[in-house]
Structures are given as C-alpha cells and as structure tokens.
Design goal:
Blueprint lengths: L1 H23 L5 E8 L4 E9 L4 E13 L4 H4 L11 E12 L6 E12 L5 E13 L5 H16 L5 H12 L1 E2 L4 E2 L3 E8 L4 H26 L6 H20 L2 H8 L4 H4 L15 H14 L6
Antiparallel strand pairs: 1-2, 2-3, 3-4, 4-5, 5-6, 6-9, 7-8
Length: 301
C-alpha cells in the first residue's frame, strides 16, 4: 500500500517537472535533480531550475519520510491521536518564481500523513494540501479563472469543499505583521479524512492536475509581456512578503525543520532574488495600491 501511494506522488512530481522543463526551454538554466535520504528514515527527490530564461527559480519536491514521533506542526487537530508504531508522511510541493513580473508566483502542495500499526501498515490517515497564486501585476481574468477551475474540480468530490477550502486559503496565507494576504488565494485544506483513501488519492491527483493546467494557462497569456525595470523592482520587493511568510508562518517549513528534514530542500521554495527597501518611490506605491485591491478581495464570491 505504501509503495503504491509513493508511486502516485512520484507521478505528480514527474508530470510537473516535465512541464516546467518545457516552460523553461533554456539550455543555460541551472537545473538540479537530487535524490536524498533522511537518517531517521525515508527520503525524497528535489528538482530545481534557477537563473533561466523563464524561471528565476522553481522547486518541485517529493518526500516520503517515516519516524517514531510526528512533529506537532503535522498533527494539527489530530494531536490527541496515539502514535505507538510511528508515522509515514509523503507529498509533493511546488513553488514557481518566474522572471517576468507579469507572471505570478504559484505554489502547490499535496500530502498524506499516516499513523502506522505494528505491521507498518496505515491504521489512521489524513490528507492536506492546496494551491495559491501570488501575482504582482494582477489580472482579474486570471484570478477568476484560477478560482473557477478549483471549484469545478472540488465539486466532483463534495459541493462544500471549494467554499471551505478557499476561505481556509485566505485565512492561512495571511501575513499578520503586514495585515495583508500573500496573494489572491486558491484552496487550502488539512486533516481531511472524510473520503475513502482511494478517493482521497484521486482528489489529490485532480488538485495537482488542475493547478498545473490553470497555471500554464496564465503563463501562456502573460509570459511575453514586456516589463520595465520599475516593474521588476516591484516584483522583487513584493517577493519579500513571500519570504517573510514562509520563514515565519508556513507549517510546511516548520514541519520540515521539526522533522530534521533536508534544509536545502526546505528552503528551495524561497526566491533567489528578493529586495527589502525602507523608502519606496511613487511608482511603487501606485503599483502596490492596485495590487492590494486584488489581494484583499474575496475571489471565491
């Protein structure tokens, strides 16, 4: 069972890697593909493209780890569950930081956590994940299509999922010290075990597929738009928000660190280039004002 589950997540990773390689298309980009093992048990594969024609950087990570004590960041509402014989956690995470500020940053994650019995079979489990979009120079059409595609996919499994997951996304990807959302949202869920294990796996695959298709659709429309140095500077400063969230609030980052994960893989989601500026010029302030109107809107309405 565990081997079959791992194969499903590896297929998701392979599909996204294939499409991201085609998207980059540059022979001069720095591409890394590393298989790694974790001393406590398990391992994974980290794929990274950086300094390319399309990507400033992107990371597509697969991991399947096991251990005795599950990190508290993974347990959430399941904290009361007894873990006598260990756990297994597996998943795929994706982060894309394009070079062109007219193409949004995107993130996707699908994961499964299992509590094992004495025979190392899963006796209790739950899934989590989702995806979100972080534009810099935002297009309403893209944001609406992004959410509509998510709703269409989730409605096949439960008509209540989209509204709930979209609201969760807005709450989760909120930066309290900035009093703003990280992006225009998407879907986010955790501790879900209401579907059968087979249907849960199908839903995770559907979510990954919808993310990829939705993102590629936006990329196709926006990747050839010419941008100014001011617009690039704006993107780099706004990426600072992304770094702040990932390092301070993100549960995935916390889980990786608490589970003694591979630091290079955990931090591969951070942008290679980012800026923080104390004083912003008028052009920046105008672009930020326009962006915040989109970030503060509920696109699921």
């Amino acid at each position: 069972m565990l081997i079959n589950l791992e194969k499903s997540f590896k297929k998701i990773q392979s599909l996204i890697i294939k499409n991201f390689k085609l998207l980059e298309g540059s022979s001069s980009a720095e591409i890394s593909s590393d298989a790694w093992k974790r001393p406590e048990g398990g391992g994974g594969k980290t794929f990274v493209i950086s300094n390319g024609n399309f990507f400033d950087n992107c990371a597509v990570n697969f991991s399947s780890i096991y251990g005795k004590n599950m990190p508290t960041s993974a347990l959430g509402k399941k904290l009361a569950k007894k873990i006598d014989h260990g756990y297994q956690a597996m998943g795929v995470s994706v982060i894309s930081h394009p070079k062109n500020p007219y193409v949004p940053t995107s993130h996707m994650n699908v994961r499964l956590f299992g509590i094992l019995d004495k025979n190392k079979n899963i006796k209790d489990w739950w899934i989590g994940g989702g995806y979100d979009l972080t534009p810099y120079l935002s297009f309403s059409e893209d944001n609406i299509n992004w959410h509509n595609s998510a709703k269409e996919t989730l409605d096949k499994y439960n008509k209540n999922f989209y509204r709930s997951f979209s609201e969760n996304c807005n709450k989760y990807f909120y930066i309290p010290h900035r009093k703003e959302r990280r992006g225009v949202g998407g879907i986010f869920f955790d501790n879900l075990s209401s579907l059968s294990l087979d249907d849960s796996l199908k839903m995770l695959n559907s979510i990954a597929s919808t993310y990829l298709n939705s993102y590629l659709d936006i990329v196709t429309k926006r990747k050839k738009i010419k941008y100014s140095s001011d617009e690039k500077d704006f993107q780099l400063i706004r990426r600072g928000r992304y770094a702040e969230f990932n390092l301070i609030y993100d549960r995935g980052t916390s889980f990786g660190l608490q589970s003694n994960g591979r630091i290079e893989s955990i931090l591969a989601s951070l942008p290679t280039e980012v800026k923080w500026k104390y004083k912003k010029n008028k052009k920046y302030k105008l672009m930020e004002r326009a962006l915040l109107k989109n970030l503060n809107r509920n696109w699921n309405e």
